[in-house]
Here is the input.
Amino acid sequence: MLDFRGKDILDGAQFTREELEYIMDVAENLRNRLNRHHSLSIMQGYVLGSLFFEPSTRTRLSFEMAMHRLGGSVVGFATAAESSVAKGESLADTIRTVDQYVDLIVLRHPQVGAAREAADAALAPVINGGDGTGQHPTQALLDLLTIRAERGRVDGNTIVLCGDLKHGRTVHAGVELYKHYGCTLILVAPEELKMPPEITGRLRARGVSVEETADLEAALAKADVIYMTRIQKERFEDPAEYERLKGRYVLTREMVERINPGLTILHPLPRVDEITTDVDTLPGAAYFRQARNGVFIRMALIGLIMGKL
Ligand code: NCD
Here is the structure.
């Protein structure tokens, strides 16, 4: 039995393969239990603090749903403007205060390293719901579960990661999980938005097969899974640079049907224009099922961290 009690979830690199498998198994088990019961009561009396300093639809709502479906409750805020940070309070003071009220904290924040800072300030466990361009480990876990569910296994898949690989925290976290599964990674990005070389260097030093190209169609021909990402507009200092790069890669139904009809298509969402809506009805278009898996992964993490599963 693995022990997650009291642990912080900060970074995709913190997990062993054994832990990843265990979390996914617990999440699938919860999905099956929810088919029979609308909600469970294992977290009754426990409270999640949901602190979102950046916009979110899926991460915030699926964390809150996860806590509700486990029988627990949630307090928090959805924008920095709703919190005393708007009055000039520091992150550490906000966290130290919320720590007096809740049993577990999920934090989304624009600054890289904010979740670690919060974990240092709080006695309660902290889950990183996205720290700037840094990490987004719970998204990476639900992506991994979706690949396993859609393809039957994670091992040996060729995964194309496409879009804003420089600023995308979901891909920064994701590669730290895929490295345990002998996956071939093909990174497709404009020169300006390539995966940071310290990440690719580390992967290659570990023996992960990492290919970098600007040619999406050539990559698609070799892929089992494509993971499309949005160009992260809010991370650009120069709006003109965003305007120049947006729309560079667009996955269309025509491309999938012509090049690789068996492709599994993932996207952390929100989508802007990088997957045309006519892709949505293809059998391999898994991005809304992927979003649903977020509830089960987050239920598993909450239950495991609080020692209830
Ligand atoms: C992602 C994020 O916030 O990093 N969204 C999410 O959590 N599902 C991806 C994005 O915003 O592009």
Summary: The mean pLDDT is 97. The radius of gyration is 19 Å. The pocket of N-carbamoyl-L-aspartate is lined by residues 58-59, 130, 136, 139, 169-170, 229-230, 232, 268-270 (CB under 6 Å). The longest strand covers residues 47-52.
